[in-house]
Amino acid sequence: MFRYLHFSPLLSLLTFEHFVAMAYYYLYSTIPKKPLTSFFISSPHIIFKYSLHKFVPSTTPSLFPSRHRSKYCTWVSAVSCSVAETDEQHHIARYWQSSNKAACQPSATCSHEVPNWKEVFRDATLPLMVDIGSGSGRFLMWLAKRNSSSKNFLGLEIRPKLVTRAEYWVNELGLKNVHFISTNAMVSFQRLVSTYPGPLMLVSILCPDPHFKKKHHKRRVVQKPLVESIVNNLAHGGQIFIQSDVLDVAVDMRNYFDDVSNKLVHIDSVDPSLPCDGDGWVLNNPMGIRTEREIHAEFEGCKIYRRVYQKVQH
């Protein structure tokens, strides 16, 4: 019996060979007792169905660290045979535990020099979106491809290896409106963003590390100093998009931004067309592109808790 994989349209950001390798290492590491015999890949451009053993031996996934190849493939969705368990919280904890093990151990105070924005972007006066905790960077790269002449995108990621890989992809794709920096956003956000020549129009914090243990909550990225820095640098009319598949983390972030009610309003008060549930969580992703964690969480049956704020002038 064939087992199939479904890949999201993120496929076009990497070569076909790399995605075949990702499928191979992902499934063989998660379900070793059920070998993958074939795969199905769909994208806006190609649809393939091959026998895996004919292709994988000649494939070298050089972009992925050999010890953790499977950990970078968590957004892949196994369609015909779910590897999901029934306990949602167990899934969430297991995912973040695996992600943390795969990541390098960054310094809590790591910072980055302010780049020359005119060298980083083709037009440094365009409106800027900053994604805090950009991970692999595919989410921003897709947005950059969609808005190649109208917006700039900056990803702040604490794990240097992910940034190195993302910058490699950016160069390969020839994108001139997206850049990634390895830094601790809690330390560097103000210094980096305050020097940008154009307006800061959007900040996103999407599925940040939940740090489940109470004694580690102080490590969560959304803290009062960062919130104040974001709000102060955000242009009038600019927006803040937060989301998490962990309710406790989502509520924690929501409380921090709700406390700045003199400068921020939730999007449903200015744009009623954006539907929310009874608790005020935005039902659909307003960006039109899902992050890898979001894809993985929704496939596992987890709910995504979203909030979108807009800066207003009172």
Automatic annotation (TrEMBL):
> Pfam families this protein is in?
Methyltransf_4 (PF02390)
Provide this UniProt record's keywords sorted from A to Z. Methyltransferase, S-adenosyl-L-methionine, Transferase, tRNA processing
**InterPro entries attached to this UniProt entry:** SAM-dependent_MTases_sf, tRNA_(Gua-N-7)_MeTrfase_Trmb
Q: Which GO terms describe its cellular component?
A: tRNA methyltransferase complex
**Database matches in SUPFAM superfamilies:** S-adenosyl-L-methionine-dependent methyltransferases
What catalytic activity is recorded?
Answer: guanosine(46) in tRNA + S-adenosyl-L-methionine = N(7)-methylguanosine(46) in tRNA + S-adenosyl-L-homocysteine
EC annotation? 2.1.1.33
Keyword Transferase assigned to the entry: answer is: yes
GO function terms (MF aspect) = tRNA (guanine(46)-N7)-methyltransferase activity
Q: Which PANTHER family match?
A: 3-DEOXY-D-MANNO-OCTULOSONIC-ACID TRANSFERASE/TRNA GUANINE-N 7 - -METHYLTRANSFERASE (PTHR23417), TRNA (GUANINE-N(7)-)-METHYLTRANSFERASE (PTHR23417:SF21)
Per its record, how is this protein called by name?
Answer: tRNA (guanine(46)-N(7))-methyltransferase
The source organism is Nicotiana sylvestris (Wood tobacco)
Q: Which gene encodes it?
A: LOC104236865
